[in-house]
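User: Can you predict the 3D structure for this chain?
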Amino acid sequence: MEGYRVCQLMKDSRFEGFLMVRGAERKTDKNGRDYVDMNLGDRTGELNAKIWNWDGTQELPESGKPVKVRGQVQEYNGRLQFRIERWRPVTPEDPVNLADLVPAAPRTAEEMKRDILETVNGFSSEPLRKLTLEMLDMAGDRLDWFPAAQRMHHAERSGLLHHTTDMLRLAKAALEIYPWMNRDLLCAGVILHDLGKLEELKSDESGNVSDYTRDGQLLGHLVRGITLLNRAAEKTGVTGEWVVLLEHMLLSHHGEPEFGSPRPPMFPEAEALHWIDMMDARMNTMKTAWEKTPEGAFSERIFSLDRRVYHPLYGDETEGQS
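Assistant: Here is the predicted structure, written as structure tokens:
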């Protein structure tokens, strides 16, 4: 029963081991009986789980904490569901390796922050350097572990840094092709574009997002990012065109109203930021689905892509397959 990863579980599989609680809620079924609806996961994936006939004698499993569980995987409405037979919180004596339970960026936070700071310190524009450093200082140590999303791309520990640094690499490659763009402005836009997510998401230090904050629900990270930028501009004394250009980049980086941007990108660096963001987010989503899907098979429908992802049989020259 032990040794399975979440991505390997199938219908009728039995599992006993340690998983991370991504969220847990007490509910009531149509017959008035209490049960617990929860999501459990490890670094390879997430699975809905149920504790039926909940008697309430224990505290609810705590989000962001590991538990030991035993039960069987079933199928409900075409999706896998884990029926928990027994569970308990972990103890200090349990052989729990959090690195097995929490998705994490492939590089350390220290390495990724170093890449960002080297880029900022290389700016020739002093106003952009001041604004960017102030925004990073306001973000503080939360950047070390903060994810980029709750469910979609870069939903992992240090995911926001992962997304930002990969986008910086894409931006620098684009600048080799389009050197007439303003390098400092594009790189500053990349570094700042998602810092509003620090106020949008409720995340613990494992990178697990339990919900959206009040600001996240009412405003979102685009608007909150602009208010943070204005605060940085006031503190550094930077005014004028640079501030307005960055405000527009933050506001327009989702591209169109359907995805939250009330204005489309209206100058080259803003347009480049939008597509760099889109490419990195989609490629990360593709990679996550691809890694969980056997070769020659299709994933489940990926909500953010509105499609299934195929894992090709790379190098297989077999003909006549359909």
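Strands lie at 14-28, 34-42, 45-51, 66-76, 79-89, 201-203, 209-212. The first strand starts at residue 14 and ends at 28.
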